[in-house]
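Researcher: Please generate the 3D structure of the following complex. Treat every line as part of one assembly.
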Amino acid sequence: MAQADISIKPTELQGGHGHPDKWKWYDYFTFNVDHKVIGIQYLVTSFLFYLVGGFMAVLMRTELATPNSDFLSPELYNAFLTNHGTIMIFLWIVPAAIGGFGNFLIPLMIGARDMAFPKLNAIAFWLNPPAGAVLAASFFLGGGAQSGWTSYPPLSEITANLPQTLWCVALIMVGTSSILGSVNFLVTIWKMRVPSMAWDQMPLFCWAMVATSVLALFATPVLAAAMVLLLFDINFGTSFFKPDAGGNVVVYQHLFWFYSHPAVYLMILPIFGIMSEVIPVHARKPIFGYKAIAYSSLTICLVGLFVWVHHMFTSGTAPWMRIFFTISTLIVAVPTGIKIFSWVATLWGGKIRYTTAMLFAVGLLSMFVFGGLSGVTLGAAPFDIHVHDTYYVVGHFHYVLYGGSVFGIYSGIYHWFPKITGRMLNEPLGKVHFVLTFIGTILTFTPMHNLGMQGMPRRVAMYDPQFAHLNQLVTVGAYILAVSVIPFYFNVIWSWMKGKEAGPNPWNAMTMEWTTDSPPIIENWEVLPVLTHGPYAYGMERSDEVGPAGEPLPASRS
Amino acid sequence: MKQIPAPFWTLVLGIVVTLVSLWVGQNHNLLPEQASEQAPLVDDLFNVMMTIGTALFIVVQGAIVYSLIRFRQPKGDETDGLPIEGNLPLEAFWTAIPAVIVVGLGLYSVVVFQEMGGFSPGGHHGHGAMVAMAPQQSVIDIAPLVAQAAAADEDIFSKTQVYGFGASPLVQMNQPDVTVNVTGMQFAWIFRYPDTGITDGELHIPVGKDVQLKIEAQDVIHSFWVPQFRLKQDALPGEPGELRFVATREGTYPVVCAELCGSYHGAMRTQVIVHSPKDYADWVASRVAEATPTTTVAQPAETATDAEYLAGIAPDLAKSPVQIAQMTSMSH
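Model: Done. Output below.
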């Protein structure tokens, strides 16, 4: 794969709006249209929601330390499990990975001064805090939605109607935010790359965001439709999903999972992008198989739209669907495997720096191998039928979403924190954070696989006493995970105020965002950058000189 | 050591990884005992996946750990690593191998699925018939629900598409030896035997016989699961399901509700008792002999209190969810 050098004409500052060089702290609480401010707004709010969702998880694991329902009432337990899942997916991983990193990095990576539609961008963000507030209000107006993050009718139609309605409203808001953001990312990447940046010269994070945005645009409206119909069933006497009035409970499942399985890829594709940026920088090697990684993102996007029925193998699923969706689900392992092999090959022969960002990236790689393999077993209908809706599934998706997405977000934060804030994070504290997280993740989520296979269903506040010992182990792991965030949050707050100055490019990285100040000035560059090499030209002979204005530099290699 | 060529080490490692994976695949002890004809089929599939998964896990994790040790930054060396961007044959190789594996696993899954009876659930295509959906209520309202369900049973199972596992192709033409209508409701399973009129809160079946469960839900979605049978089927309101199986081992096994069905979902547990044919016949005879109006379906709602009725038909069931529900209602 050849990555041709990038060379563009220096361009004068196009802003000239009389903006100050830096934003003040209070600008971050306003309807600011700067993509960097919006990115930080997304990241900070999502990390706050992470604490809320994590707190719920700790309470749930405390309940599950014993077989009986003796700490939380069953109704409150169900409300916590519903909102834990909802918050972690819709207000933590998706906004952090897509909204946070996407907004901050995409214009910087492609040499743009902002997103294509800055006001739309701000609207997309400002739909999120009210959605969180609506979810919080649902606890005070009826005890919170209690029918799980899937909210299958008829249960969702007969349990806690007002909180369930608020839950639907919150999801419609974050879904709308996601759609608006996706349009913005696609148009920005399509139209606002520096003129000489061909598609195959973009950083791989941009490719991941293209795939993510396309997927979100196809899938999210279907979720919004399901939410509207459910809301109508609950409040306005319709019967889309009411079996006693001609509705069908399985239709909801199709609509829900048509979005919610791709949602897994929405959560992991940007993280794959982050991996493809972090690993080459800290291994000091070009990414191995650039095109394979880029195209595998698109393949996951495409195939990911045709796997949703594997969540319904035990439900109202016709036999042919079980077969088709078994095969399609298993096929997703191929492009995912390509990425994993490529990252391992990037490590091979490198000069690996043991930075915290790299530790989390390699930790993710390790976790994802395990989570991916258990995912393959779940794709096979005969085995899935045994473990569906059990702790095996809970263990699997936490391996993928916590060991995958959360590790990826951490890795991204450690990698780009210097760019975002201008200061370095404390590395020893970061390593403490990594070790606690790594041990906590394994201890929490590995025994869940055993529990599920042996016969423990998910979403239960009370369980058979034979499962008590493994559950206690899981609870200890969850407490370790809870403790693990303390050094991280302390590190971020302290380093943001007092950390070592970073300089523009502390990792000696090669993508375009590292060519501007840290933190970047408003409108990103005084003069748009001139690049003389591809995004991953580590170890290659290259020319760093700037050519005469308007003349591309001769390629140092082909 | 340096005189030994790399292919030799690759070969040795390959043999070791293969042997370890094969051993793990057969000796993981992760699954509960097998108690149905379907269970060994599922377990064999899982064992194959476990073998392949173990091999891949060792190879990839081994490569990661080896890289981290072997290719760490030498002290004071700020230079870059080797500028290797790709290798087409290698990339083709590691695309093709997983593709072959997953296609193979897919085909194997189809074969297992067919042998389990996945292609032949009973019932007929037709317009969906709907049962009454109860508003949210506690298990105390169980009696009228049972009465409604009994009346609706025949209609539902004769008119609609049935999902689940039917008879395997070998026994497809045979009538089942035992048919049980299973109704899930918050928060109990009710088992009715149409041939004998028995209603019970536990499932009793004979070992080695062809058993057909017709599964329905009365209020919300439940999911019927016996881990030792490796079988699960959602109980959907208005959408009947079926499980057809042969239990192969006498014993008592848990029946678990696997789908979130409300506050006491975790307590919705009962058991399936697999009898020897003689014990099963004795059980049927004793239940028929002791049959009183409280063991029939239609009458008890009028004469007995809900708690009395439920205690009569499902003595073991009454130990957990009913008591919990009663305690809850008393505390309010």
